[in-house]
Structures are given as C-alpha cells and as structure tokens.
Amino acid sequence: MDVYKIQGGNRLKGKITVSGAKNSAVALIPASILADSSVTIGGIPEISDAWTLKALLEEIGGEVTFENGKMTIDPSKMVAMPLPNGNVKKLRASYYMMGAMLGRFKQAVIGMPGGCFLGPRPIDQHIKGFEALGAKVTNEHGAIYLRADELIGAKIYLDVASVGATINIMLAAVRAKGKTTIENAAKEPEIIDVATLLTNMGANIKGAGTSVIRIEGVDELKGTKHTIIPDRIEAATFMIMAAAIGDGVLVDNVIPLHMEAVTAKLREMGVTVEENEESIYISKQKNLQAVDVKTLVYPGFPTDVQQPLSVLMTQAEGTSMITDTIYSARFKHIDELRRMSAKARVEGNTAIIQGPASLEGSTVTATDLRAGAALVLAGLIAKGETEIHDIYHIERGYSSLIEKLCAIGANIRKESIVIKTKNNA
Ligand SMILES: CC(=O)N[C@H]1[C@@H](OP(=O)(O)OP(=O)(O)OC[C@H]2O[C@@H](n3ccc(=O)[nH]c3=O)[C@H](O)[C@@H]2O)O[C@H](CO)[C@@H](O)[C@@H]1O
Ligand SMILES: C=C(OP(=O)(O)O)C(=O)O
What is the complex's ipTM, to 2 decimals? Predict the structure, then answer.
C-alpha cells in the first residue's frame, strides 16, 4: 500500500504553481463526447480522475491521448456502450457521462458514481432535469438507464443550486430541440469553463455564471481547442499552507477573483494576502486569529476548502467554528486531527476548533480528497513523522503534490509499505 510520509517542521518558501481545475477537467473531458471531431484541452491536471475519465471515453470507442497536460479526444467513433460498473465507480464526475451521452446518443446506461463520501450526495436534480428534457430515467440494479426519443428544451428550476446538476443538464440541453432555461443554476467558475468549451464547439449558451442559464439547442457540435481555468481549490490549499508554515510563498497561476471568499477569510484571520494579476503572495505570518466560517455555494466560502482551513484554525489564537452547509458530514478529518493532538470536536454540521495547538506526527487516514489535503498540511506543521494512508483519495484531485511541495521546502515522500494482517504477519 502506498502512503505519504511527512517529516514536519520545515518552512515553505518560493513559488508553487497551481494546475488546471479538477472540477472543470472532470466535466470538460466528458463534454467532448458531444463533438463530431477532435477536442483538445490544455492544462488537464495529472490526477487519477482525469486518467479514469480517459479510460471511460476509450471504453465507448473514443481515441484519447493525454501527454504533458494536453488531452486530445477524437469522439467520432464513440458508441452508446453501457457503463454499469468498473471505472464509473472510481469517481464522482462519471455522472457527467449521463448528460453528454444523452445529448449525443439520446441514451445512456451509467452505474451510480463513486467519489468522496461526504454524507448523502443525491442526484435527484440531475434526473429531474433529464426528465424535463424528455428522457425516461430508471434505476435498475444500481445503474441509471436514460433513454429519449428526442430531447426537447424545457424550463428547469433546480431546488438546490447544484454544480453537478447544472453542468449535466447543460450537457444534454445543448443538443435538445429548442430552448432550455435552468433557473437557480449554480454559479461556480467551473460552470463558465464548461459553457465556454461548449460554446466554442458551437453551442448556444447564455448566462453561465449567473443563476439563470438559457440554452438554444443545436443540431451539431464540432471539435475545438480549449485551455482549462486554474484550480481554485488547489490554490486555496496552497494559500492556507503558506499562511500556516510559509516564509514567503508565491501561489502562481491563480484567478484572484475566484479566491475572494478564501482571501477575505484569511485576511480576517490576520493573514497578509497580496493579490497580483495571476498570482497571490503570502508572506510569513504570525498571530493568526480564530474566525467563524460557513460554507456556501459560490461565491461563498467553498466546502472543498473547509477541511484544509480547519487545520489552519488549529494554529490560530482562540476558538474557531466552521459550519458546512453543503455537506453536513464532511468532518471525518477532525477525528484524524485529534490523533495528532488537535483540540477539535464536531457538533452537528459544525467543527469547533481550539487553538493554538501543538500538533504531533501520527499515523492517519485520508478518508476523502480534501481530508487528505488537510492531513498533509497537519503533517507539515506537526512535530515528528506523519504517515498518511489511503492517499488514492488525494491523488484523485492533486497533481504532483509531493514534487510541488518538496520544491518549496517540504519534507514529504511517497512510500510503499506492507500492512501486517493476520494472513501475512
Ligand atoms: C465533480 C465536482 O465538481 N464536484 C464538486 C461538486 O460536487 P457535487 O456535484 O456533488 O455537488 P453539488 O454542487 O451538485 O451539490 C451541492 C449540494 O446540493 C445537493 N444536491 C446536489 C445534486 C442533487 O441532485 N441533489 C442535491 O440535493 C448536494 O447534496 C449538496 O448538498 O460540488 C461540490 C460542492 O461545491 C464540491 O464539493 C465538489 O467538489
Ligand atoms: C468532493 C470532491 O470531489 P468529488 O465531487 O469528485 O468527490 C472535491 O473535489 O473536493
């Protein structure tokens, strides 16, 4: 089993470069299914989710290359192959195969998606959208079956402003007949990125990034080239690391506007954040102060940053509270942080964190992707050695994390270890 081993206590200094956005990449790659010729996407992060999606596109007949961050997808020979099991279970975003295959083939069979366990993650709004467009949707033996004679544009009001549902409905609606309106749409930057790719393919989409998206369906979509936006969650993770143990860190390849909620909270904690055009500089910090945070849909504070920020809170003076209104059970990392001597507890959907705490290295488990990023930070801060298990979660979403952190001074390495069980002891 692969683990990360971290010797804590090193300071971070220098430039760290953010990769393309995971949560864009995982939607842009399936979006290519809708084109009639090759789509090239630059800046795809080297994460396992991207490799798994490449494999899924190949399973349905796509010809895909992925080298140096550039993925080229030739969708011309794709067929509506059912994908009930296997790779679809390895990631959450396999659900975008539903919208894209429905848009192109008017049918799809996709197993229930995997991804991080964060508490219940329903997809009822995705299904409601597909049904409004005229698809018949059934759940048989854990797979979703979608079939439509034709897709017809409709007015769809989302009960919750879901990123996944907004993108998935967009993917199907660009090939529906007539007009679709998505009301109470999510406004995350990744939605604009997907709309930009689709528009360059020939789709007619207005209002992406606002709460009302209007789509006029088209008969065909063509191949194109696209460059992905920077990953605002990875950028936030590095900003938080820099605030905790940096001696001057430049986080490069950032859109500062996407970081506003994070930047504002860090400033409230006493962190000096200098914004440049495409980078953010965090100098050496002292006297961090406790704050209260509530996660919200964009442009609010992102749930994906809740877990890394809770580690910074262990280093701040006083009692911080962080409430997750998007995923109420996204707190498994708190138990792991307690193993490292953090003074923290969970009450309902809120973590209450007492700082400053002297963290101690320990053996911990990355229960999910951002929990893993939080534990990497905790290990970098802690005295002694931290060993992180189940790092495959981290590698679903962070590209070259070890190389990037070592280049600015961290002592972290990946190792294969043998876990002793009754059978091999
Ligand atoms: C692949 C991807 O981009 N994943 C992101 C996406 O996940 P995901 O697409 O799962 O999140 P959504 O934005 O869809 O969900 C937001 C909220 O809506 C609820 N909901 C969602 C869909 C639905 O049909 N019904 C429903 O009730 C969810 O339970 C959650 O409380 O947004 C999350 C919230 O920003 C991020 O943590 C994930 O990183
Ligand atoms: C929860 C996340 O990912 P996913 O939706 O792919 O599980 C995340 O990116 O933090």
Answer: 0.96
